[in-house]
Amino acid sequence: MEIKIDENGYYGKFGGAFIPELLHPNIEELKANYLKISEDEEFQNEFKSLLKDYVGRPTPLFLAKKLSEKYGAKIYLKREDLNHTGAHKINNAIGQALLAKRLGKKKIIAETGAGQHGVATATACALLDMPCTVFMGEIDMERQKPNVERMKILGAKVVPATSGSKTLKDATNEAMRFWINNPDDTHYIIGSVVGPHPFPDMVSRFQSVISEEIMHQLQEQEGKNAPDYVIACVGGGSNAAGAFYHYLNNEKVKLVAVEAAGHGIDSGETAATTAKGSEGVLHGFKTLLMQSEDGQVTEPYSISAGLDYPGIGPLHAHLYESKRGIFKYVTDKEAMDAGVELSKMEGIIPAVETAHALAALDQFNFNKEDVVVINLSGRGDKDLQTYINFGNY
Amino acid sequence: MTNRIEKVFHQKEKEKLTIYFTAGYPRLEDTNTILKALDESDVDIIEIGMPYSDPLADGPTIQQSSMTALANGMNLNKLFEQLAELRKITQKPVFIMGYCNNVLKYGTEKFCQKCAEVGIDGLILPDMPMHEFKLQFKPIFDQYNLKNVFLVTPKTSEERIKEVDEQEGGFIYMVSSSSTTGGSWGDSPERLEYLKRIQSMNLKTPRMVGFGISDHAALKMVNQFADGGIIGSAFIKALNADDLEGSIKGFIKKIKP
């Protein structure tokens, strides 16, 4: 079984472009140009040079000895938390901002949940002199205050999304509505592997630098370029898509996607889309979606603002459906405990999103020689208040 | 058999009025009262909105009416229950407007079958581009004799407009400008140019202009270049729950004096 996107933007039965006609020209323009531009040598040179000198890539692949000992495997941490702005989100933000410039766009909009994508986009826009507007749910603005201020310092305008449930889903709706109303000079930098085709593919490609580096680094450190497991948390799924990318069609590598179970899969307060979702269309693509029997999108719950999205990217929906991916579910408590464990054991405070990936280690019986790579998608600075409130340290 | 929509456009040349309302708003059981009042008013086509939690193409007024309708308990089973009496109330063409997800979740086949049973003439699903329609929906729509209305905008290419025309969707929904619903109208040379440009294409499908039309002057203006206008947000705003029938008839009289 080969995992790949088809010409209509489908991974298996998920994906596509369910967009209002109003956005059709924008999406067509993007579809016609994203590969041509992003594969161009000059673009690649500029992108790679910014990733190296501005973002700080390659990020290290760190063998976490104490963690390895505890879980009985060779556990490597791909340190995306060491990127400029503190998460993997910057890879995609810089890529798309460069692409938008080449498309002749003058302004950038973005949505953000936890604020990491908003900060990354605001940063890329400051660097590339592009005015930036970030839509953020009113509730998320409250729980991720430091990131709101960071975006403002970087010169971005932060617009509260006050419709619906006032979180990431609604921030995305508002960004799309703004794009509908301002189609000519604006590019919408979607922050995850979601949205209408070609966004999921484009974002995956910009994030694929992660798995590309893992291959080289493992070759150097282990004498082989593929691990036995790659583990990553999934909200929309961009860090997971980036960490899985070069291994999608290497079936020896187990791809583990970890979703937020919130208070428990059956608690009614969860963001575990693959466990609780069904086929549906949201934000311009077909995927697995948390929704009522009547097709109304329901509000997910997670302690992590970055994981409480009611859907997942179409690639991940396909990985789930085809069983190519292994999906695990981690509660708030398990994630917070794993976050504190990593902090105390290895001296790294992970983002609460990332802590979900770490908590899944408990759910495996590894062999001692297994090479496990966990994508450490972001650092926990922004989540200090969440850690303090939880108080489990 | 000539269907209802074709009949309307054959009756007289132009100046058709389509009114949109959100099912379950202002109150859950208002659907049939609104349908009856619209039937008795100078309205040619009726568009019933299926409320959706994430209506991307809609501005604040319709978003809010959808939220209220959902909070009132509106859902598709309820709507089809209410519409069981539809063809006793009106013989005007009735379209359902909504978003793909509701149809998919309900089951496309079951949804279309229900529409056909109660006498719906067609659907308007703004997040369903033609490509997806042809890929997944068309055979089912055809089986149940449902029209699918496509939207075009000032940025839609001539080639694509011709493709829309070929689909014979009952009418073409011309979005007045690049915007969500309920935007402002005002003088716009670009809009005029757009209306004239499409008019000169001599399409076989009738053209109705929507988004941003809120008064008689705007409707009169689009009537010069298209077959009529579609009013949604302004109508929703005008609804008075205490005098639903009076507020509807009063609104239509102001629009079409």
TrEMBL record, chain A:
N6-(pyridoxal phosphate)lysine modification, residue list: 89
CDD domains cross-referenced by the UniProt entry: Trp-synth_B (cd06446)
Example of a GO MF term: tryptophan synthase activity
Annotated Pfam families: PALP
Pathway where it operates: Amino-acid biosynthesis; L-tryptophan biosynthesis; L-tryptophan from chorismate: step 5/5
InterPro entries on file: Trp_synth_b_CS (IPR006653), Trp_synth_beta (IPR006654), Trp_synth_beta/beta-like (IPR023026), TrpB-like_PALP (IPR001926), TrpB-like_PALP_sf (IPR036052)
Enzyme class per UniProt: lyase
Domain Tryptophan synthase beta chain-like PALP span(s) in chain numbering: 56-378
Cofactor(s) needed for function: pyridoxal 5'-phosphate
Family: Belongs to the TrpB family.
Record's subunit section: Tetramer of two alpha and two beta chains.
UniProt function note: The beta subunit is responsible for the synthesis of L-tryptophan from indole and L-serine.
Name by which UniProt lists this protein: Tryptophan synthase beta chain
Organism: Marivirga arenosa
Automatic annotation (TrEMBL), chain B:
Natural source organism: Marivirga arenosa
Quaternary structure note: Tetramer of two alpha and two beta chains.
Gene3D superfamilies listed in its UniProt record: Aldolase class I
Name the record gives this protein: Tryptophan synthase alpha chain
Keywords: Amino-acid biosynthesis, Aromatic amino acid biosynthesis, Lyase, Tryptophan biosynthesis
Pfam family, one: Trp_syntA
Superkingdom classification of source: Bacteria
GO cellular component, one term: cytosol
Source taxonomy: Bacteria, Pseudomonadati, Bacteroidota, Cytophagia, Cytophagales
